[in-house]
Structures are given as structure tokens and as C-alpha cells.
Hints:
Ribosomal Protein S5, domain 2; Rossmann fold; 18 strands; 37% helix
Amino acid sequence: MLIKIPSVLYLGLDTLAVDVEVNVANRGLPGFEIVGLPNKAVAESRERVRAAIVNSGIKFPAKKITINLAPADIPKQGSFYDLPIALGILSSAMDFSLPEKSLFYGELSFDGVLRHTRGAFLLGLFAKEYGFKNIFLPKDCANEITTFDGINIYPVERLSQLLAHLLNRQNIKKLERRDKEEFSLESSEFDMTEILGQEQAKRAMEIVASGGHNIMMVGSPGSGKTMLARALPGILPLLSEKESIEVTKIYSASGHMAPGASMMKIRSFRSPHHSASLAGLIGGGNQPQPGEISLAHRGVLFLDEFNEFPRSIMESLRQPLEDGCVTISRAKGRTKYPARFILVASANPCPCGYLNHFKKECTCTPQEVRRYNKKASGPILDRIDLHIDMPAVDIDELSQDGQAIKFLENSSVIRKRVANAHQIQEERFKDDIICNNAEMKNRHIKKYCSLSGEVKKILNQAAIAFQLSARSYFKMIKVARTIADLTGNDNIESPHMAEALQYRTK
């Protein structure tokens, strides 16, 4: 008897249709074989499915069972074929039909329990696009797709429970659709009021958060670089619906969604160590997986001790910073992942860290300082919009009393201004495919960033004085556009451009 069950195949973030064809033959020696270019995880489904059926109190059919994953010329990977394979075998052996327009998805454990399985959100997108009405999947994955309308979502705990539902013995309760969920933005590691001094750096972070710009902080140890970077997520607004879909696809496909989690709304913060490998940062592997830059999509990528990263890894950031995506090419094919993130890099001014310190004396030679600062190449630094020096904080500022701290703005106040700037940009770019000022191309700058004669004069004089490249020249216009958005101005004025140029003195 032949049973066909629709399923899926993931190629990066793309989802393709696959038919799980289960043929149970009465002739021939008993056996269990899977064909259709399965990888090791798929081939091992035989043992998981057999054990899950037997330990669910069901007799496994002693017949010749052949599973074909069609189309047969594309490699298959993943453990989510366990459930459709098991149901195909049970449907043939127990002679019951499966509901039409339904998808079955999930990894089985030996005792018949369905485990949390990656890729459920992509399955929901596929079901919505191709008109599937029902999805049966592990209970721990079900929340990922509760925002899709028109789809019945059945959270399944174990194989025997699903079998009872299909035989009309005991129905599984459908999950209700969730239109909105409450998310807390008070979960960042630091609040801006905890960072004493460094007012210019705080202002720079507000601009970074408002326009999606990149920033480089250079300062002595203990000047507050790491605290500022970790406080940045606290002033970023929630992901928009479009951004949320992009980010959730990446996390779901790579298996980074926590059990029971739903669509992602809070922007991610990734902070890889400088010993991270190239594949770990950019992405890769035999079966290409997203790296840290893709997991930071629409969020923050913090590279502490930037000059300690290997030169090859630094240079690999060039293309993602420019294009907002990364393409991983292998002999078996190419995979493209989005990588539009805010880069926050921090470094010391010299190897010992105390160059130009107002109290401690630097012990580095001029050659050591030059060699250290040359680790970050000009092309990489040119792709970073804001550059700030962070001097050491005086002890008087650190010992402020509670009354003085009261006048410092907390992250929630700054976040409101940032959210207003995001709304302005969302309205501005509603007919374009970009989301913020940092993503503007030259055609967008020409359309949305008209400069008066006085503003052009200031920019041109600075470009000559600072020897700005063409890329840096246009980045200053983007930063000035963000500063104007923060003040609610439709036009870029002289104070906006003057402030933007303060962050580009090198």
C-alpha cells in the first residue's frame, strides 16, 4: 500500500515541497529502507520511528517498508521527517486515512514523545503560502506559528496522542491564534543611568540606535565601552512585523529558537569572542549554517577588543557591512543569509591601553602603537559611520550622589526618541525595500537628503580637511539625516551636519 504525505525541505532560508512516499509491501522479506538522498539524521529515522511505534504500544508491521523522499535528486537533512514517516507506516498498517491539506512535522524520541524541532516557523510560512489548513507538530514548537491566520495548529506531545486524535478517540485541542504579545524591553544588561560620564558617547549611541549606523569606540580600559555596548539593546525599539519575520526565520532554521518561544520581537545582541572562527562569525560548514553576523540580523553585533580579531575575520566583514547579506558558497551549492546588523566595535588606543591617559603612563613604543592600530584596515574603518574617543572617567564623576544621578536620562526615555525616529524612517521608506537611514543608497540620498548651500559648504570643507572617501562623505549625510530625524526636522540643517562631522575626525 502506498501513502503520500506532504512535507518540506530547507535550503538555507528557502522552503521546498517534499513528498514522503511510504510503501508497505506484503511481498518480500521484512525490511525498512529510506531512499531519496537522506543524510545521516534522516537515515537514522528508521530506528527512532521503529522504537517510537513499539514503545507507544503498537505492533510494528513485519513487512517490507520503503520510504522515498521525493524529489530524489536533492539531498535531505533533518529529523523532522520522523513523524510523517511513522504516520505513513501506521496509516497503511491500521488502515486509516490522514486529513487532507495537513502537514505532519517533528522528531520522535524512542518513547514516542515529540521533541522540539528546528524550522517550525518556516513550515508555517510554507503552509500559509500553499494553502495547508492543518499543522501537527511538537508542542514545544507550536508557539512559533500561532501568529498565522487560517491555519489550525495542533500541539502534539506524543505519537499515541496524535494517533488517538486521527482515530477520533480523543481530540487534540487547537492552539488559539495570537495577534499580539507583550514584550519587556527592560531586559538589557545596563541602563543608561548606570553609565556615568561619557555624555558624547551616549549621544552617539542614541544616533546609532535611531539610524542603524555602525560605531567604533576607542578608549582606555574601564572607560565604559562594554557597558555602553550592552546598554544599546535597551534603547532599541521592538522589531517591526517585517523585521520580526526575517529574524525568526533565521533563528528557527538554525535551531536557536528556545522551546515554547514565539515570533521574535526583541532585537538580538551577539558578542562573539575574538577567538571565534571564520565560519562561526560569517557562517559555513558542510551544511551551511548562519554565523554570528546573521544571528545579529536587525540587532547588535558587538566585537569587543576589535584589534585582537584575526585580520582575515575583520576583512570578511567588508561585504556583509556593505550589502547586508552574506553568501556562503560550497561545492554542493550556495546559501544566502541576511546580515543587516549594527556593528559596535571597541578597541584600546594602544597595546597597553593607556595612550593619552590623564593619570597612567603609556609603556608602548611609537612603533608598537602604529602596528597595533594598523590591525584594522582602512576599508573596514571606512565602513563604520561613527568613530568616538572615550577618555577615562574622572573619579569625581564616578562618585556622584543619588541626587545628581536623578538628572541622567534612563534608557526608556531615550528609547522613546529612538522609536519616534524609527517611525519617521518607516514612513519615509514605505515604498522602498530599506528600513532605516543607514541602508540608504545614493539614489535614496538624492531623494530624501537635499542639502542647502550652507550645509554643502560645511560638508565639503570637512571632506577636504579630514580627507573623507566618497563612502565616508555619503555616510556623513546619512548620519546627519538621522540627527535631523531625532529633532523632528524635515530638512538637514547646519547643526545636524556639524554634529555628524564630530564623529568622523579620522
